[in-house]
Amino acid sequence: MGETVSKTLLIYCITVQWASVSMPRSLDITRRQAPVFRPEKLTVTQEGLKEIATFADGVGPYKMYIEANSELVQWAHDDGLQVHTWTMRADSLPEKYSDFTEELNQFYFVYGVDGLFTDFTDRAVAFLQLAN
After folding, report:
1. Which of 47, 72, 73, 88 could, after both became Cys, cross-link 118 (CB 3.0–4.6 A)?
2. Can you give the pLDDT of all 132 residues of the chain as single tens digits?
């Protein structure tokens, strides 16, 4: 990344997403100031999450990684990371869920994710409003 981009990252609080382990280190930023999320297979191991926690505030693992290992969210939280999974689709549910609400409930209240990406924001927001 160029010097201008690096300086911008130091000034503004933004979210940066990438899929390369080398990219965050190439920024040469000594103090982390922007929350960072990156979906990558490294996020599915306890050791990988510990490494990510040295330079990031959060991870964005694919939802099936969480389904395959329900401890993943707890490991991330233990290392001080937020977890935002992707992508929840009301029109394309995994067979194990009877409806979108059931899937949202599983991820928010059973697995404990901090947030998620969805193409059905109106339904996800309504679900969270009812839950509170």
Report:
1. 88
2. 445 444 444 444 444 555 555 555 555 454 455 455 444 555 578 988 898 888 888 888 899 999 999 999 999 999 999 999 999 999 999 999 999 999 999 999 999 999 999 999 999 999 999 998
- Asked if residue 2 is part of any domain, the answer here is no
Entry pTM: 0.71
Q: Backbone phi, then psi, for 28, in 5-degree steps?
A: 55, 45
On whether residue 72 sits in a domain, the answer given is: yes
Within 8 A by CB and 6+ apart from 63, the residues are 85, 86, 87, 88, 107, 116
Which domain range does residue 115 map to?
37-131
Distance CA 5, CA 1 (A): 6
19 within some domain: no
d(CA 37, CA 52): 10
Q: Is 14 among the domain residues?
A: no
Residue 127, classed as helix, strand or coil, is: helix
